[in-house]
UniProtKB/TrEMBL annotation:
The chain crosses the membrane at residues 38-60, 67-85, 131-152, 164-185. The keyword Cytoplasm does not apply. InterPro entries: GDT1-like (IPR001727). This is GDT1 family protein. It is a multi-pass membrane protein. PANTHER family: TRANSMEMBRANE PROTEIN 165, TRANSMEMBRANE PROTEIN HTP-1 RELATED. It comes from Rhizomicrobium electricum. Its main location: membrane. It comes from the Bacteria.
């Protein structure tokens, strides 16, 4: 349960102001069909984060616990710094697409590759050595951050205190990094 809740919180906060959230906003403005957009986001995230989590588990199987915890701690410290940097607009959707679900699935999947939330999913799956709770947490966390943007669009997105949210997200990543560093070195 801890792996699920930590991942849910970490990914949910990390997604706010992230390039994929900006993409969700652009898709909502472009297509104005929230249900197929959200279904496409969920499908793309599940596939992407299942792969990311599986890679994390594979890495965990080959590394000693102390080395793995050190790598997780360093990765989370890097994520804390990366979170403080605002994202710019990502890929722009083709508003002429006929199948909103498939268009969303494809563009969201491609944009999520190498994204903060994907890396967090890989890192936490390795750290907790748990695939399903981490992927469930990352998918629901991402959806929790993106669903309001898809339904409420520009009016909601411009009211978020993104700088403050990025600072809180960075602090959460730093705390998680410290937790894994303590776990690695028994301090």
């Amino acid at each position: 349960m801890e792996a699920f809740l930590v991942t849910l919180g970490a990914v949910g906060v990390a997604e706010i102001g992230d390039r994929t959230q900006l993409l969700a906003l652009m898709l909502a403005a472009c297509y104005r069909k929230p249900v197929p957009i959200l279904l496409g986001i969920v499908a793309a995230t599940l596939v992407n984060h299942l792969a990311a989590g599986a890679i994390g588990i594979l890495l965990a199987d080959f590394l000693q616990p102390r080395i793995l915890d050190t790598i997780v701690a360093i990765s989370l410290f890097v994520m804390a710094g990366w979170t403080l940097i605002p994202d710019k607009d990502g890929m722009k959707p083709d508003c002429s697409a006929r199948n909103v679900f498939l268009a969303t699935l494809w563009i969201f999947f491609m944009t999520e590759i190498g994204d903060k939330t994907q890396i967090v999913t890989t890192t936490l799956a390795a750290g907790y050595h748990s695939l399903i709770p981490v992927v469930a947490g990352s998918t629901l966390g991402l959806l929790a951050a993106d669903a309001p943007v898809v339904f409420l669009g520009n009016a909601f997105a411009h009211r978020l205190p993104l700088k403050l949210i990025r600072m809180v997200a960075a602090a959460i990543f730093a705390v998680l990094a410290i937790f894994f560093a303590i776990k690695a070195f028994g301090v």
